[in-house]
Amino acid sequence: MDVIWKNVGSLDNIPRCGARRLCFGHNGRPIAVFRTGDDAVHAVVDQCPHRAGPLSEGIVSGHLVTCPLHNWVIDLSSGDAVAPDEGHVETLPVRIENREIHVGIPRRPTSEEAA
Whole-prediction pTM value? Predict the structure, then answer.
């Protein structure tokens, strides 16, 4: 996947077991960056697949987040809802360089490439 890497700030700006909603989105949808208790970082579209609840306001436990609206649990690694719920939220690639978080935003093809 061809991506554009965006520096979204220091790892230290996100508390362990917390999240931050980014000031830019992807395909018209908001993005959230999560930091787990073991310092893993995940980026997902900040909308629960159930009713588009803001996952960034949910509770992080391990590598899971619980949606604050209806308690759906989403695996931050895969974006999949945990059974018995069904659904998926888009995940985005993340890399850490010198404690700075970079999120990969899929590059949109130019009009010439799309043709």
Answer: 0.89
pLDDT digits (tens, 9 = 90+) for 84-113: 999 999 999 999 999 999 999 998 765 555
Domains, in order of start, for the chain: 14-92 (2.102.10.10)
Task: Report how far Cα 75 is from the mean position of its chain's Cα atoms.
Answer: 10
φ/ψ region of 87 (left if φ > 0, alpha if ψ in -120 to 50, else beta) reads left
108: how many CB neighbours lie within 10 A of its CB?
Answer: 11
CA distance 113 to 72: 39
**CA 56, 45, 84, 51 torsion-angle sign:** positive
